[in-house]
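Q: Hi! First time doing this. I have a protein sequence and I read that you can turn it into a structure. Is that right? Here it is:
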Amino acid sequence: MDLRDKRHCYQAVNGCSEVYDLAADMGGMGFIEHNKALCMLSVLINTHLLLASRDIGIARYFYSSSACVYNAEKQQDPQNPGLKESDAFPALAEDGYGWEKLFSERMCRHFREDYGMTTRIARFHNVYGPFGTYEGGREKAPAAICRKVITAQLEGKKEIVIWGDGKQTRSFMYIDDCIKGITDIMTSGIEEPINLGSHELVTVDELVDIVEEIAGVKLKRIYDLSAPKGVRGRNSDNTLIKKYLNWEPSIPLREGMKKTYDWIRGRMTQGK
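A: Yes, that's right. Below is the predicted 3D structure, encoded as structure tokens:
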């Protein structure tokens, strides 16, 4: 999509009754920490899509936000109990990407209030799975770790480089659960932003353990403390989405990582 030309947005939504805004210029922590301006420019996607949707009377509009909107001061403990939706304020979002997401959330709210649009917002927590980016600098931790382990196997190496000290924590949501959650939220009456993620908290070291076990290898770990690491601990509090929609992830991390590993290994060994 040409962000300089709003006509593309009108063409994209013409004839639709629903719009799902899943687009953003983003990637893993290595990308968003070094490309803050590019991440901020994603606000043009949402701005143009909202305007086009308003002008042609789109019935429902879904916006994919991110856990990066949450206050960084509430993510300093690796044993994060789970970020509640209210923890986005007072605002101290991830610089660049997180601020763009938080601003676009608020823009959706005001289009709903001022123009009567039906908008729905989900805060994604680390979506992963097959068919995702696994190389090139934009990949996220699950895919990056799979690629590193597979590379070590294929090249006969016995070590893996891990960004940070391995103690930072995250939760990861498999793509199938994400799609089910999007559908449920889009057809719901929930007007405010809501978490969409897993509460299965793991350290980066534990994520490496899972991939090593899947691959049947054990690698020496080299910790790169100078690499981008993000917050120390981030987890999803799913109280509200369970209350409103009875939604919770159905695919355990180990199962989802096996599917992801197998797909990436197939791409790396059989060609793209």
